[in-house]
Request: fold
Amino acid sequence: MVRAKRFGVLLCAADSEYVKKRYGGYFGVFAGMLAEEGEIWDVFKLADGEFPDDDEIVEFDGFVITGSCSDAHGNDAWICRLVSLLNKLDSLKKKVLGICFGHQILSRALGGKTGRAISGWDIGITTVHLSSSSSKLFSSLKIPTTLSIIECHRDEVREVAPGAEVMAWSEKTGVEMFRIGDHIMGIQGHPEYTNDILVHLIDRLSQKSFIAESYADELKAKLEKVEADKDAWKKLCISFLKGRLP
Reply:
């Protein structure tokens, strides 16, 4: 009997009421993008202290690290525990896909540097440029060399870990994607987000005075005119996580 592929979502953010009601939480958002028939998907709420056991890790084919309101350069107990977990996953050569905070914490855990972005917040739909080697790697997926992606971050990877390859960049962010070997990949943007999730986040950032109301209105107006390349990102993420790249 063929064993079912098993993946874990390492959830690093609390679900908002909006995302809970519409998508079943961020786990539902990620599973909706990445899960395929016959697979088993589990969720671990890391900020609540839910981590996979050491003897459980080997049963998984891959993990996805989500975004977070926390800083990847912070030293909360759960963040330090996550750093340790990511080193174990790297040593086991488990597939790990990091998104936004996940991208940053992966880099930190494996020897890179993260911090506040020099250019400040990046919120909206950003054009990302793939490197020539990335374009070759993804050639079988028939995706363009520039891709638009939803972004919502004020931290960034300042320096990639030893042995890491920068795969993509944008005008505001020098490290939009990186990989280490064929088992680690980080993406600064949010391939899993929809425009309505971003609008909801913009409203929350404005309500909490992280961004000005006028800036929030400007961002939402721009979103009405553009869409991210969600299908291309979905293909890219699935192909990496499930070992389908050359």
